[in-house]
């Protein structure tokens, strides 16, 4: 009987020790990953920041707050904003940030992720309301940088560094989309007309240069005429060409020049006779 009672006593002690170990060991030892830090509070007062690896705590006296040091992502919900030129748009964004000081992130602000999300949402509405629609669409990087700088300046006392802010999407009203499409079409037509006019101007300049060169070397015009005949003869055309020497044009021109003075003299004679 004494052996049985001693066995039960030992069993009770073993069970008691096992229960205490199961309760105390998880409270005494914590394992933190490489990207985690533990902000330790002893009796409610900040003690130190520990980690990564195995850390030791006093059970029921030390409490910890785990902080993730990796880059975190916040999706800023779509907001309805009125731009500087009174256009209503819907915008959303993504904010990337990381905790640089775990102590400040836990002590200085309650729920730093939620606080950063609300700050990013408010800043997005403020910055978009200060720019015009064309600037928001064409200078997206500038808008992103302004939002990032403002959020980073506000979260710096919290030990948080804003890595980047990206405006993901800008949704325009349907009437504004149609107006912008008409504007783009008109702009393309204007550019086409300007390019066409520039081409005509350059072609006219080259033709003037060519005429001046042919005036200095009349044989160049004859060579150009023969080249044109060769090009036409290569095509399958049902017409015939009768080449005429260019000197014939000079003959007709000389005849017209000689007729002009005679006709003027005849007019003078008729006038004298009438008088």
Automatic annotation (TrEMBL):
Locations of Polar residues compositional bias? 256-266
Where is region (Disordered) located?
255-275
InterPro entries given in the database record: Band-7_stomatin-like, Band_7, Band_7/SPFH_dom_sf, Stomatin_HflK_fam
- Superkingdom is Bacteria
In the record, the note on similarity to other proteins reads: Belongs to the band 7/mec-2 family.
Please give, as recorded in its UniProt entry, the membrane topology of this protein: Single-pass membrane protein
Instruction: Indicate the transmembrane segments per the record.
Output: 6-25
Record's GO cellular component terms: plasma membrane; side of membrane
What SMART domains does its record include? PHB
UniProt keyword Protease present:
yes
Subcellular compartments: Membrane
Residues of the signal peptide: none
Question: Where does this protein come from, organism-wise?
Answer: Fodinibius salinus
SUPFAM superfamilies per the record? Band 7/SPFH domain
Give the record's keywords alphabetically.
Hydrolase, Membrane, Protease, Transmembrane, Transmembrane helix
GO MF annotations in UniProt: peptidase activity
Give all residue intervals belonging to the Band domain.
27-184
User: Could you provide one GO biological process annotation from this protein's UniProt record?
Assistant: proteolysis
Protein name as annotated: Regulator of protease activity HflC, stomatin/prohibitin superfamily
